[in-house]
Amino acid sequence: MRMSDHYHAHVYFEADQIEFASQLHRELAEQFGLVMGRIFSVPIGPHPKPMFQAIFETEQFAEVVIWLLHNRKGLDVLVHGVSGDDLHDHTELTLWLGKSHPLDLSVLN
Fold it and tell me: For 87-99, what is each residue's pLDDT tens digit?
């Protein structure tokens, strides 16, 4: 089985939480120097809610995930590995902080 060489954290939010989500986006970039995806105000890809993505290396996993656990203030976060198989990554290599949400897996086939 191919191991993940890096990870994605998808931080989900509601429309009325976009200000806090934007703040969290900035703090992740500043705190860890992460590659940050843009903030989407509508669902995109397999993701059912507005979100942003943070990309981090395996060596940063514990530090980033623990930081998110303590600083997400009720936002739900999908963390998944990146192995090159999107379906596998979004179904088997997942960790949820907060509530899990059903993904639209049809776009990953």
Answer: 999 999 999 999 9
Q: Provide the strand spans (E) within the chain.
A: 6-12, 35-36, 51-57, 77-82, 94-97
Kindly report the backbone phi and psi dihedral angles of residue 30, in degrees, each rounded to the nearest multiple of 5, phi listed first.
-70, -45
Query: Do 108 and 31 meet the contact criterion of CB atoms below 8 Å apart?
Result: no
Q: Are 91 and 105 in contact (CB under 8 A)?
A: yes
Give per-residue pLDDT as tens, 57-78: 999 999 999 999 999 999 999 9
CA-CA distance, 6 to 26, in Å (whole number)? Answer: 20
Given this structure, which CATH class describes domain 6-96?
A: alpha beta
Quickly tell me which residue has 């939480």 as its tokens: 17
Residue spans of the domains in the chain: they are 6-96
Can you tell me the distance from the alpha carbon of 55 to that of 92, in angstroms, rounded to the nearest whole number? 18
pTM above 0.85, yes or no: yes
Q: What's the token pair of residue 74? A: 């009720």
